């Protein structure tokens, strides 16, 4: 079944609406969210406001299409109890969608997303790309923040040949790096295509153009590369701490052996009885 979203008309162009993807938190719990106006289940999409469109993604993103600011606030307020690990700042990705029946689905450089009509399937494809882009933006920032902290540690180690800072600071850095890596790796699989394409292969081209426009594959590849470096650096710092601990234990054992030998020689020299 095909549904449409209401639009506003402009004399110089086709009808346009605004689509906003908001990364609300680590996860969105959509289980049991039953509505009479559900348009699709993967992602969960339904009508809101007058005739707006909302798509919810489990990795924490809500995509709002054709809603007024007040209507958007109502939707987000209604989702608040379902947001797991809500962020103080909501990452946002915004796009203009223009209906142009005489054009193929396309995205000109710097222009709006042209679509032939606002079918539920087309909106689901657009929502998927915007949601992934919003999630990637936060993941990129988190990975970069860890990178910025790790760089001085790596530079100090390279220049001085010894561990920088105290053991507690390194353990905090390792912990933060592991948390970021876990959150980012498990949040969203950018390489996965939206489920709607199984039933609508004719929308593959639209999704491919959206992938190119938002550089989803390139950004995901760069992000995975950063995560690999973070993982390698974390492992190196952990190994360094383990090595230092092992050296300390070995030194303590050697000192104990030396102490035992000294005591033994002292007892032999003074004629004192042994143990």
Short description:
The chain is α+β, with helices and mostly antiparallel strands and 275 residues long. The chain contains six helices and eight strands, in the order ββββββαββααααα. 28% of the residues are buried.
Can you tell me about this structure?
The chain is elongated. Strands 1, 2, 3, 4, 5, 6, 7 and 8 form an 8-stranded mixed beta sheet that branches. It starts with 7 loop residues before the first strand and ends in a 5-residue tail after the last helix. Helix content is 52%, strand content 21%. The model has no long low-confidence stretch (mean pLDDT 82). β1 and β2 form a beta hairpin. The protein contains 6 helices and 8 strands, in the order ββββββαββααααα.
Blueprint (SSEs and pairs):
Blueprint: E1 8-10, E2 13-28, E3 38-41, E4 44-48, E5 52-57, E6 61-65, H1 69-79, E7 83-99, E8 113-115, H2 120-160, H3 167-187, H4 196-199, H5 204-213, H6 216-270
Helix pairs in contact: 2-3, 2-5, 2-6, 3-6
How helical, in percent, are the residues? 40-55%
What is the radius of gyration computed over CA atoms, rounded to a whole number of angstroms? 28 Å
Largest sheet: 8 strands, mixed
Can you count the helices? 6
Total strands: 8
Features:
single chain; 275 residues; alpha+beta; eight-stranded mixed β-sheet; 52% helix; elongated
